[in-house]
Amino acid sequence: MKQDVSGLGLVTAAFYIGIGLFQVPGGILAAKIGPRLTVIYGTTIASFFALLTGFAGNLAEIAVLRFFVGAGMALVFAPAVVLVTRFLRKGSEGVGVGIYNSAFSLGGVIGLSGWAVFAGGVGWRSSLIISGSLGLATSALLLFFVPKDNLRSDFKIDAQHLKLILYDKWLMALSIALLGIGIGSTVVGNFMAYYVENVSHVSVGEAGAIASLTQASALLTAPFSGRVFDRFGNVKLLLLATGAVMAFGVGIAFVGTLYSAITSSVLVGLASGAGYTFGFAAAREASRLGPEYETLAVSWVNGIALFGDFVPPLLFSYVAIGFGYGSAWLVLALFTFVLILPVLFSRISTRRNSRESSTLSSEV
Question: CA-CA distance, 99 to 88, in Å (whole number)?
Fold first, then answer.
């Protein structure tokens, strides 16, 4: 489309607005019809509009279509987190979230490295049409192989319960922390390949391979961090450590060499794989109103984090154009760390704490 980095920022922001706006509606829908059907609907919508992007004629059309891809994906993530954790034994829920995050990371590795080479061969339009078609085929697999939900016939969404979740201060703090984690993974995931290709003058395939190190690193840490969460449980300390690594990873790209880009991609991946696992596992446990509201709790946290993620691409492209890429990396690194800090001053509210308090009371 012969656009500069601002065009990439616009398209990326449109996606995050869509995925952020539809998180809570997706959580409410999952409470009503079950997470399985919600995931199927979301996968179908996202895949259909990804396919249509292959026929887009200009940047504005791509931005609109990316918005709807984001809206469809908003119906997938949180309900699928709940589905995966239900299939694992009690006490291993964090591992389930980690495994699920790893699947996303694996897709990212394929998309940024192998698929970039494939798109270079068949053309970007054909690659989008094919990937959208594969997504629609995935919807069919979900329909046939994921067990149906055991829905309560007497369940009705209670406005008071919705209020308890939406005004929960701990969930708000988790959302802000994940927004901080998301800033790093968003700017590196969406800009690193473009940055390396233009600054270091390497091929598209090589730039994509470097950017894919973020997803590859997340693939390594996500399952392990799920086990750490199940055993350690101090989510405040875990998120603080993760945020520090994330901020350093984003900031080191300031150096401007190929090696600093590789180091940045790896560190950001390690931090995002762990950070998202810690955050979503804690959000799922924060729902004390029954399993029907688990998806809404995760959706609410994810929604605030992702909706806020539309700002970093615009901010990064603005600073990069006005002050250079080095300044852009440092500014985003600072934002990453600052947004982690509020979680340290919030009171933890989870089912795990409620069980521990009850046990302690009975012992006393």
Answer: 11
